[in-house]
Amino acid sequence: METALPARGRIGRKIALVALALVAAAAAAYVFAPRSADLRAFDPATTARAETAMWRHYYEKRYLPLFLDLYGLARTEQGFSPWDSFSLALSAARAAKKFQPSRSRAEANAALPQLIEYFRTLSLAAPVAVDVEKLAETELDWWQARREKVKPEIYGLTIARVSSLLYGKDDDNVRQSGLIRANAMAHRDARDQQMTDADWDSIAEQLTRSYRLLKASVGAR
After folding, report:
1. What is the pTM of this model?
2. Which residue ranges make up each domain of the chain?
3. N or C: which end of the chain has fewer CB within 10 A?
């Protein structure tokens, strides 16, 4: 009897270790296992609401809520794994934070490494082969154009170019989507510190129209 108890104790510990290893393996599989992410599988209204919230958090310099919004969008609308969603949210939030205090294109280039990292992960769910560096540079082009007060009908076409590079589509719907999104940004810029809840609701409506046009063009898998 004196030796049986320690034996049972060793067996119990082995069972506990095996159970712990199984739980750890399941957790790792959940977090890291690739998902069938697809950039085309988004709901326009949900995406528009998420982006509206992201804009608001960006201008209020609330980077943690911005990160959480980015994570949720990647996870629920695009179907990325938790790890890839975390990577996307982190690189996008870091790019925004790097860009925000810049005052020239030279300074804005500090955000390029994070944008490249962001598009490298995002490209895993793109329906076409993607030039990651070209995408990052084009994205930064319209960020800077907006900063320099370029007219929305001009930088809106650059926004459309980003979509074309990402989805492999270049048609009127894509271009109109980019222009509407740019006009929503111009609305925010014109109101600036006077933005109200009604203004944000208007932006959400504009972004919904924009993403519906994009969805009509790129379709679903």
Report:
1. 0.82
2. 7-34, 37-218
3. N
